[in-house]
Amino acid sequence: xxxxxxxxxxxxxxxFIEGVENPKKREDAYKLLDIFSEETGxxxxxxxxxxxxxxxxxxKYKTGHEGDAPLVGFSPRKAKISLYxxxxxxxxxxxxxxxxxxxxxKACVYINKVADIDETILKQLIHQSVTFLHETxxxxx
Length: 141
Fold this sequence. Notes:
Layout: E1 8-9, H1 13-18, H2 23-40, E2 44-47, E3 51-54, E4 57-60, E5 66-69, E6 72-76, E7 81-84, H3 90-96, E8 103-104, E9 108-111, H4 119-136
Helix pairs in contact: 2-4, 3-4
């Protein structure tokens, strides 16, 4: 059976951010920490070795695969900052049109720095993702 690698753990979020080599990226990580904490009302937790997540939900796919994941999160990676929002939400795509300079994959939105994006849209993306996941997985509230 598949074992999920990215699990919530008790590692220190602050120690992780302090370990970010690039000072600008570290500064952005603290700014994102403040925004995500304030907007979700959840305490930041480490998920795996490098994702800072907020809240959690339990998902189960039709295939039978299931697990836990953060409602939203981010990771200050070397190349870019990864932002994690709910997938499968058409509202996400609408909001991303006016988000600012970014690229996106299935689960992640990638930015170079916080200055490249509209923070108001970031806050809307956070709220939309949490709302969408609470509606999609109603037993997780």
